[in-house]
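Fibronectin type-III domain-containing protein
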Amino acid sequence: MGPAASAQVPNDNIENRQRLRAEEVVTSSTTGCTVQRDCVDERLTGKCIEYHNDQWFEFTPATSGRYFVNIGGQKCRDVRGVQLVVLTGQPCQPATYRILSCTSLGTQDDVFVTLDSLRAGQPYLLDVDGYLKDFCQFTLQVSTKAAGMPVSYFPPNPTRVLPTASPVVELRWTLPDSLDAAPACRVMRREVHQYRSTEVRLVPVQRDTYGRPVLEYVITDTLPGPGIYDYQVVTTRGDTGPAPVRLRQWWYGYGSGSTLPGVATANSAVLALPLRKYPAKSNLSVVITNPGNGQVLLSRQLVNQPTNRRQGQLPVRKWQEAGIEKIAVEITCHPPRGHFFTDRLLLVLPPVAALR
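Structure:
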């Protein structure tokens, strides 16, 4: 059953929050959920979260210590996945809230969020929301053991992306002494439009003739095609070792068409719309307006061709020269199968200097 087919869950409202037991795995969905505006305060979480379709859980540990919130099995309409806020305080009294953790996943990888020094008998509230209105099914577990990869807090931006003219990239990392008992390192790769990361290499931790661990590693990998790629190196967990740890993360941009969604290309006055995330052969309606006065700047109908990178390129010079700094983009997708849906984006135009 897809995310769109799920009914609203009972714990949509905080008074019906679902109590979690340690190690228990629950399955839920953000589809159909609403927001109790009196029970949240976005000022407490800053830019981390914007509430759209949240639901509530509560966990009270029996013993004090470190716990992990494991999020897995995500099946979402978009790439973005869910976001999680963990807090203490009186339910639906934001003035009493204290935020312990705020995480926006941005992918559908199986990940964990670490919660240190939880106190026995102290109730903790967990608020799960679809990241930027994404509709998701997911599993949730509070456990003393981590499952999946450590959550990444570093989404791509133009200053972090390393351009490469070759599809072969070199990855180097160092294993710290404190983690020398890890059995291996997983090398994970994800193109920015893909739902999940893929393990492209499992590198065992090597030891010399004296049994001492080798700490420096280097491998090469071949990119399958143009795009923006996220690489992560994550340790595996031994029987008695610590939770997986991310050792390195890189973003590589390969090919002339490799731009981030909503980011201007270096050589032309265009903005790249994130059309590749929509199913092939979907009928797309793209309407662009000036958010300042509601004026329609562009209306376009097209059949989505994810392999055609030019299809998502949007000329912006005339709007920038007219003094427009932001554009509102509404994309309605009619996929070959399933119901239509609409995404709404607010994109910042590149500065004038970037267009010359």
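The helical segments are 317-321.
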